[in-house]
Amino acid sequence: MQWRNSRTRYGLPAQAFHWGIVLLLMILFPLGWYMTDLPLGLEKFEAYQLHKSLGLIVFAVLLLRLLWRWRNPPPPLPTELPPLVRLAAKFTHFALYGMVFAQIGLGIALSFKANAPIGFFKLFSLPNPLTPDKQAAEWLSTAHSWTGNAIVSLIALHAGAALWHHFVRRDDILRRMLPISADNPDKH
Ligand code: HEM
Prior knowledge:
Helix content is 65%, strand content 2%. The protein has 188 residues and is mostly helical.
């Protein structure tokens, strides 16, 4: 298994960042929807703290992922793809990064404005630099919810495109992000 990205494949760290974030988002979304419907009490408080802790982990992993990507560019898209498809892919990737960062920022801001603690697995809490404001917290909460919906739509587009590449175009786009490959990675 290679470490660095090549012209045809993602290396192990890039794959681990990608699938690690997928896993974290698969927990964060259902937890977010579930916890808001809970009645006030300890379970709700602990679910919120878990959601916030995992959200902070996504933030750290995203920063590391972008640092790695900067030092280690991803394999280029196949040149035979129509320009509009290449543009759509780039836009979706850029929008996904931007929206997930925005989602984390909104979650942090809404907690501070609601004067709710942001703990990290009972290890420490972030100090609140903002003045609490109930109305702003409600507005930010609505924005956090809508950005969440936009991320779900982008993920559907992104995953749908990966499946289209794999099953319709039958190219290596999905395989190059998988740790095992039935194909020769350097056949191109
Ligand atoms: C990528 C990371 C994140 C995702 C995907 C995510 C997703 C969600 C979702 C789907 C909800 C439910 C919204 C609804 O009711 O429709 C939610 C609620 C919430 N999230 Fe996040 N979240 C993330 C990060 C964070 C972070 C970092 C924090 C704070 C440190 C945070 C704080 C909250 C809070 C406080 C709520 C409840 C809002 C309310 O009660 O009105 N989230 N989140």
